[in-house]
Amino acid sequence: MSGSLGKEQILELIINNLPIGFSIVDEAGIIVEFNQAAEQITGFSRQEVLGKYHFAILHGTADATACPLLQLTLKRHEQSVASESVIQKKNGDFISISVTTFPLFDHAGGFIGGVELFRDITEYKKLAKERENILSMFAHDMKNPVMTSTGLLSRILSGKTGVLTEKQKDYLEMVHDNLEKLEKLIRNFLEFSRLETKEYLPAMEVYDIRPAIQKLMDMAGVEAEKKASSSSMKLPPRSPC
């Protein structure tokens, strides 16, 4: 192939056959190259965008700060890998894209523009949001029966339903602890979903791992009894601080 085609023809074939949008802008942000995938994603033809400002065409404004990713490349000559942005298609719809940008330099090291590689992730983000909603609903549905079961076990452990043997009490306390742990995991999951929407930020706090280890050892002891074996642990002394 290299014998029958020149370098420019090969480059043109590569650009037009890229499965992602490809655009080149000069140092001022004017589009000088736009491939077929970019046409399909944006709805603009190559002829419509060449010689036009990237910001005006894909962000609907002449404000150069409208595209922070390209600004990073044009002003600071830095790259941005797989970052998310929003552009406006020819029909007026806004879509989410994953973008990689990087600066271009000539042989003398002079800055001459930037390259933008992008793909439409609108459907992916929509599906991800739907999945989050489904998981959140699922967690909410799990929370109620877990809380109810924990409450019933608390009544049994308090002796309101009759006297328990020590062995029954020990086992029920383990079940109760596991349910409380499951309830906490569900709460944490719901909190994490709120973190993604930036409803609030996490706060650091001290966590004592000893009780957690002890509960795990207690549960391991139950399994050990079934196999006529035993388990034990030795914790280091507590830190003075």
Short summary of the structure?
The chain is built from eight helices and five strands, in the order αββααααβββααα. It has helices at 7-17, 36-42, 46-49, 54-59, 68-76, 122-157, 166-196, 209-226; strands spanning 21-26, 31-34, 80-88, 94-105, 111-120.
CATH C-level of the largest domain: Alpha Beta
Assigned CATH architecture of the largest domain: 2-Layer Sandwich
Examine the coordinates and then state which fold CATH places here, giving the name of the CATH topology of the largest domain.
Beta-Lactamase
Give the strand order, joined by hyphens, for the main sheet.
2-1-5-4-3
> What is the first-to-last residue Cα distance?
72 Å
Poorly predicted parts: none
Main sheet, how many strands, which sense, barrel? 5 strands, antiparallel
Descriptive overview:
With about 240 residues, this protein is α+β, with helices and mostly antiparallel strands. It folds into 2 domains: about 5-120, Beta-Lactamase (2-Layer Sandwich), CATH 3.30.450; about 125-200. Helices cover about 50% and strands about 15% of the residues. It contains 8 helices and 5 strands. The protein has helices at about 5-15, 35-40, 45-50, 55-60, 70-75, 120-155, 165-195, 210-225, and strands at about 20-25, 30-35, 80-90, 95-105, 110-120. The chain has a 5-stranded antiparallel β-sheet, with helices on both faces. Helix 6 (about 120-155) runs antiparallel to helix 7 (about 165-195). The longest helix is centred in the middle third of the chain and has 36 residues, at about 120-155. The model has no long low-confidence stretch (mean pLDDT about 85).
